[in-house]
Amino acid sequence: MSDRPSVVGVVGLGALGEALLRLLHAAGYDVVGVERELDVLARVDQRTKAADATRGPGAAVTLTNDTAALCRADLVIEAVTEDLETKTEVLRRLDSVCRASTVLVTTTASLSLTALAIASGRPSRTLGLRFLGPAAPDSAAEPVSTAMSDDDAVDALHRLLPTAGLKPVVLGPVPAGDATGLVYAFLNRAAALADTGYVGHEALDTAMRLGCGLPLGPLEMLDELGVDGVHSALLELWHRTGDDAFRPAPLLTSMIRAGALGRKTGQGMYRYDELGHRLGAQRPAEGGGEAAGVRTVGVVGSGTMARGIAEVTATAGLRTVVVARTEEKAGGLHQAVDASLGRAVRRGRVTVERRRTALDLLEVTSDARVLAGCDVVIEATAEDQAVKRSVFAQLGSVCRPGAVLATTTSSLSVAACAEAAGRPGDVLGLHFFNPAPAMRLVEVVRTATTRQEVTALGHDLCRRLGKVPVECGDRTGFIVNRLLLPYLADAIRLLERHDVEVETTDLAVQRGFGFPMGPFALLDTIGLDVSLAILRSLHRAFPEPDFAPPRLLEQLVAQGFLGRKSSHGFHRTPQRKQL
Questions:
Q1: Cis-peptide, bond into residue 435, ω within 30° of zero
Q2: In sequence order, what DSSP letters do the residues of 296-355 get, joined into one string?
Q3: Helix (H, G, I), strand (E, B) or coil at 285
Q4: What is the pLDDT of residue 573?
Q5: SS3 state at 61
Q6: For the whole model, what pTM was predicted?
Q7: What is the per-residue pLDDT for 286?
Q8: How would you list the strands of the sheet with 376-379, edge to edge?
Q9: What residues does 142 pair with on adjacent strands?
Q10: Whether the Cβ atoms of residue 300 and residue 409 lie closer than 8 Å to each other
Q11: Which residues are catalytic?
């Protein structure tokens, strides 16, 4: 076989198979695509021709339902459904029609590669190619071999991947399986939340992308992976483990019955054109909000979130009054904002003039009476309902009539926190994400009594601050924490098994799905104590196993292992040397 296969085959043109066919075609390979279902074949043919019309024809693409067309292929990738009997049948058929030198590659994610290789009839030339996330340019793929594999067959697969625009990675079956289970349970919960009507599809995806730095929102990822493929994998995990986190959400089942399988069918969580492009995609507007009538913003608190919000509002050109508990804390807050803006200047994010203007607009005091002149007051104190109720009782007495009163709570009821103010129509949640100067998302939380104009002002203020507002109702955890914390708790519970390692699980989630960090690194970043507090709040509101705080998390927090801020969590973070 030459260094580069002259013809590559793909059997099964579902979400993964079609994506591989497109990558190989774009890379200049002659590709033979085989699909048993004629309607699927017709859709792929239509999209391939439309793509060629857009960018110009490249290498040859042959689409057929006849496996015999693969007789001239040097390498064939099997991408049929994840079922032992189906894959075995396809591999045996390939063995009967392909040349003896042809390399067969199965995309199995959970079946035994050795068993499939033996069943194929050519165990030395049957390899594996493991994908966790959607196949796309520069996405990760793990080439897998067995003890029986011929060296030249292994070399052929390794050479193919980078030329096809894929990134070869090493994951291992246990980390890959655990990463898949974690992410698929997360996708399942997202589908279930979307089905409640609590939040729109676009808003849910935007919140998870911006709040967690994900490459795709969970509903977008479901469409990319294929709803039927995810549903099948969830069923297998549910039957094998008995864990109801894997029990497919009713929405996924109803979508399959309706034939809405994702991007490959043109209809899934979203609708797509013949090229697979989203139809009617509406990204939330950023910047440009006027926040009419807002000239002065008050911030109550002196911690990290209060400092960050004060920096954001002052940098946006709004007079900002911060009320700290003591004069000492007030002085420290001003210094901290000054230092943060200094770093922003050095990094080129803020001009020297803008920093000077922001500091001129910033007033820090311990006297709550100065809040009387504020148009919006944002409470950013400890995540403790008693503390927040005490603050809002004070705000109700000192703030002018009609002033908007907001809380930054991440897991408590907005209405319960603000009830003591006695102004139910003027209250809303503005859940900024940490660090507030860098994170673009703000969850705008309306209560049952929040006036419409107050919610609208919250949106406008966020855009004025350069943030992306996503609106939701007043339920514990809102959007991001409602979906993120069960995923993190699932990861911690994995550690009760003897064969799970923190580092390899984190790497599998990062490399396999393109997440910016693995679950354990994210827990250390958030803070183990913060994560535990949110889980406790969620579990009180939703007494379900998904939200139960894991025993290991309770123990670590009790022992003072809090993550990065204590230099020890699931990872050890060395203290930086003082210069």
A1: yes
A2: EEEEE--SHHHHHHHHHHHHTT-EEEEE-SSHHHHHHHHHHHHHHHHHHHHTTSS-HHHH
A3: coil
A4: 73
A5: strand
A6: 0.91
A7: 52
A8: 362-365, 319-323, 296-300, 376-379, 404-407, 427-432, 441-446, 468-473
A9: 130
A10: no
A11: 410, 431, 443, 481
